[in-house]
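does this look right to u?? BES version
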Amino acid sequence: MTHVALDLQADFVEKRLSGTATLTVDRQPGATELVLDTGNLEILRVTDRRGAALAYALAEEDSILGRALIVTLPAPTEPVVVTYRTAPTSAALQWLTPEQTAGKRLPFLYSQGQAILTRTWIPTQDSPGIRQTYEARIGVPRDLRAVMSAESLTPDGTLVGQDRAFEFRLTEAIPPYLIALAVGDIRSQSLGPRSGVYAEPAVLKAAAFEFADLEQMVEAAESLLGPYRWGRYDLLVLPPSFPFGGMENPRLTFATPTVIAGDRSLVSLAAHELAHSWSGNLVTHATWSDFWLNESVTTYVERRIMEAIYGVERAEILEVLAWRDLQEEMKRLGGPSSRDTVLHIDLEGRDPDDGATLIPYEKGAALLRLMELTVGRPSFDTYLRSYIDRHAFQPITTAAFLADVRANLVRGDPALEAKLRLDEWAYQPGLPPNAIEPRSAALDRVEAAARAFAAGTTASSLKAHAWGTQEWQYFLGALPDALSPAQLADLDDTFGLTGKGNSEVLFAWLRIAVRHHYAPAMPALERFLTSQGRRKFLRPLYGDLCARTWGKPEAKRIYAEARPLYHSAVTSTLDAMLAE
Ligand code: BES
Ligand code: ZN
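got this back:
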């Protein structure tokens, strides 16, 4: 696959996209068939460019991979035109009612391709190791606006009857999981020469304030990794149901509104998605087993961007928080001997989405930090930048990455080779003994406060009034599971935790509330679960509820109400958890 041209109409009544995908392929000598991925697509016709029918067959359905569409290829240079429509239950697409948006007036549609959901709205070769350019014409109801992970050729669209058509083009080749679309009451505001925010009108001002440092972040990333190669960098704030913190769609990161804290305290998310413009979108994991190469470099670079803009203390705090989360994730996955803690994960017979744990992020980032601290920052920075340049616009496997590190960083130095233990990091479970634990003096003080509080000190004597979001996250995560009702009430009354607007702090508090069955926070818990759809928040909270006799029926009741708000990336895991 070398190019995909989409011509699709969005029908908000039927909840379907319908139209054509015109696929240009690089036909290998002797090839007679084109095998495409599809999931839940209704294939209406397959033709050549002139409309002459081509023979095709749909293979048996695989519960994870969907159905292969096998097309007999036309004459050597002809593109293949697939006429199709998506199912209202397409796993990539979420069709939101007006009530499920911030503005409550108009409907909204967005797509989420990663990991293997693009096949549920585009028939294509849906592997991260395959790259294509794309163009699209998207027809939508005239009061809505379409945006994509591409250059917009018609920002205001073109009126066609009752509809408005938008055209897009991306001339850089990308893997299919990065093709993305959103349609809704979307406005934009510029932030810098090549950056801006997109959001519903009700959210735009807050989004522009929150992400005011976006242009500076692009500059910081460039000084680390070389020129930004995608033209513009914009960020779209989605309605609350968006299942992820962020998604690095080229030119237009998709983000959850739950990072709009009002004080810019959660903007490391933007640094993370921006970093993917190099690690992930330029150099892409070749298979889902190599996914850690995307997220580890990105997570490492995210912290470097944060350090460059907000200082070393803030970066250290993020590292220590992440380190603690990594320890917990290791336990959750079955301890340091679990195969799911291997960076190069074995996904045979599994959904690649199962590999999206904290391991590729934080174990991977710990390896990169180890490399940096071992060879020194200047040498490591030179290496990292050259790694991006050597592999830009290409897929990378774990073996190729290790070979690249050996050829260009280790360079036959046996002492360095022995210090790094690269193969152990990539292919063995657990955390190798040479991992370097990060430290933060600020969080050491918070840790002491958590210990003091657990031992009986009152909340008002904690000197916590100057704490920021991360200090609160750390403090709440450090508290033991056996607090008394009086201690919980003291904390809540002193700091107003149940009423917190910051999603991360509220989440950490609600976990404590569930584990202690702290009744005064239950209405806030229900509100949180029914007002946003971020998987990172929902899975642990529903999981904690389901682990308790009193909580299970509550979880079921709330889930029944909230489920229509959630994207399939969330319901696909929660359905199983809540059915038991
Ligand atoms: N690319 C990921 C999101 C993703 C991964 C979606 C795997 C589907 C499958 C994105 O860059 C990401 O990592 N998002 C994080 C936030 C980040 C700050 C750690 C998230 O959504 O929590
Ligand atoms: Zn990421």
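The two ends are 42 Å apart (CA to CA). idk if thats expected tbh
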